[in-house]
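Predicting holo structure, zinc ion bound.
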Amino acid sequence: MPFFISYFFTKVNILRGLSLSDTCQFYISYVKIKSMDKNLQKQLKKKLEAEKLRLTKDLRSFAKKDPKMKGNWFTRFPFFGTNRSHKDEGAEKIEEYEKLLPIEHNLELRLKDINKALEEIKKGVYGKCKNCNGKINIERLKAFPEARICMKCSRRK
Ligand SMILES: [Zn+2]
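Done. Tokens:
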């Protein structure tokens, strides 16, 4: 905490009749909360990085990266092998392809959110709602570390 803020707290607390040692306690608990946040953020960062690896692996198994646009992926047209002479092979392929498209889209969007969250951790602005700018609840972040908006805003949508 910068000096002028701790000075302010000391002033206010003394005015409120709190002793200097109470003020010190207050300051210590403030620092503790701060460092807990850091630890939690580290845990969430690990979780995000693991999820990023997993999603990238999943996407690679049936899609390929768009060389022109960062974060964009294409679903590969399924390849069933050459020794099959099934009549419906073409139709099957199209069906398979159409099933994969929304899956690919979802994975791609999650991966984008994860990358944004990791970027925000780097910049030190992680955990803010993109809609109302409020803090996103810690429990929500634990369950869903790539969350872009807070619970209130997500219910409203
Ligand atoms: Zn919000």
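The chain has five helices and two strands.
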